[in-house]
Amino acid sequence: ADGEPPRRVAVLGSSGSIGRNTIEVIRASGGRLKATVLSAHSRLDQLIEQAELLKPKFVVASDEQAAAEQSWKKLPKGTELLVGPKGLEQAASCDEVDVVLAAIVGAAGVRSTLAALKAGKTVALANKETLVTAGPLVRKMLDAERKKNPAAPERLLPVDSEHSAVFQSMACGRRDEVEKIFLTASGGPFRTWAREHLAQVTVDEALAHPTWDMGPKITIDSATMMNKALEVIEARWLFDTPAERIQVLIHPQSIIHSMVEFVDGSVVAQLGRPDMKLPIQYALDYPRRLAGPAERLDWTRMHELRFEPADFDRFPALALGFEVARQGGTSGAVLNAANEAAVQSFLEGDLHFTEIVPACRSILEAHDYEANPTLQRLEELDLWAREEIHSWVCA
Ligand code: NAD
Ligand code: MG
């Protein structure tokens, strides 16, 4: 690491939970990481504060209207303002960036992530929705590249803690020696709730996650276990693994972040406190491991690590995730958009907790499946699925 120039990082979604953790990692890096781009959608005062601290080359205010209403007087000299989704794509692919930390929530993060990949940047991916919706396109791009240059280092690196754990565990063997991927799940706030009680879940109950402190969308996804469903799809594309080789395990302590079983039966796992700074830093510094601010496990205390099989009856999102991982094509984009709209409706009090997954299923089953969609087609279906949820809610 000594003598190397700093890695220049674009933090897309810097005002969010992952974004703020990323800034902590960068600030603790002693200069080896430098934030050259920061972006936020609506919390623009916070974006300006972050800019004052980190003096990036660009800030992006992705909500154009909020940008127009904001006073930019305090923006440091030398920091340039970009706006809107186009501003995000420009910043993600600009010369002043080596690594893009993709931490925008939802399908809103797809285009900037794809722009970064197309521009040849290394992408540290928190935005799992990119692989859920556009997994087939990303896979094709990376496979073509790998064929041309088999020795090139990975440049799509997971930040999602499970996928980071799988990625780290996979380093103990060759990819073709991996037989199975175990994705662990905390089980969320309703792990032990009876089916009848789930129908009565309130927004506040669903927003109270037992082990992770995250943005509202992924917190609701964790409560329905749609988050794990999306992670199965994410793993399918990221590791180019068929759904049959992926299994979900409930592990309430969130200490084993996921595991890999090799063909000889050996299981390798990655452990740590539930602290996103660790996978964030691993992705930003990859392939190096350096001292950092992530919290440590205390091995002088007693720990219990428990595992339970996942309950597909109480959490029907899981079956949906495996189906979509098997189908590929347009299914991921439809499931993702339906889920985003359904979660929004639940948060607004317009949909019961237990309606989120059935609504997603019915829209997925009604859609016009295509095996090899273009990005434009995926975006059309994204809009269509959101409208379908809207009619479902109004019906
Ligand atoms: P968050 O809600 O805390 O932050 C979201 C960020 O996206 C904010 O900076 C916000 O300004 C920005 N944003 C929102 N809407 C936007 C839009 N339309 N256009 C551009 N930017 C927009 O979310 P989070 O918890 O930090 O999650 C971010 C991503 O990371 C999600 O894809 C999530 O699934 C993934 N992830 C999060 C965690 C976690 O611990 N929080 C763990 C694993 C994966
Ligand atoms: Mg995760």
Automatic annotation (TrEMBL):
UniProt-annotated binding residues for Mn(2+): 160, 162, 231
Keywords: Isomerase, Isoprene biosynthesis, Magnesium, Manganese, Metal-binding, NADP, Oxidoreductase
Tagged with keyword Manganese: yes
Cofactor(s) for this UniProt protein: Mg(2+); Mn(2+)
Residues noted as binding 1-deoxy-D-xylulose 5-phosphate in the record, renumbered to the chain: 128, 161-162, 186, 209, 222, 227-228, 231
Pathway: Isoprenoid biosynthesis; isopentenyl diphosphate biosynthesis via DXP pathway; isopentenyl diphosphate from 1-deoxy-D-xylulose 5-phosphate: step 1/6
Residue ranges constituting the 1-deoxy-D-xylulose 5-phosphate reductoisomerase C-terminal domain according to the UniProt record: 156-239
EC number in record: 1.1.1.267
Catalytic activity, as annotated: 2-C-methyl-D-erythritol 4-phosphate + NADP(+) = 1-deoxy-D-xylulose 5-phosphate + NADPH + H(+)
Pfam families: DXP_redisom_C (PF08436), DXP_reductoisom (PF02670), DXPR_C (PF13288)
Source organism superkingdom: Bacteria
Keyword Cell wall biogenesis/degradation annotated: no
Binding site residues for NADPH: 16-18, 127, 129, 215
Domain DXP reductoisomerase C-terminal: 271-387
Enzyme class: oxidoreductase
UniProt GO MF annotations: 1-deoxy-D-xylulose-5-phosphate reductoisomerase activity; isomerase activity; manganese ion binding; NADPH binding
All copies of domain 1-deoxy-D-xylulose 5-phosphate reductoisomerase N-terminal, residue ranges: 9-135
One Gene Ontology term from the biological process aspect of the record: isopentenyl diphosphate biosynthetic process, methylerythritol 4-phosphate pathway involved in terpenoid biosynthetic process
NCBIfam families: Dxr
Protein known as: 1-deoxy-D-xylulose 5-phosphate reductoisomerase
Organism listed in the record: Botrimarina mediterranea
This protein's encoding gene: dxr
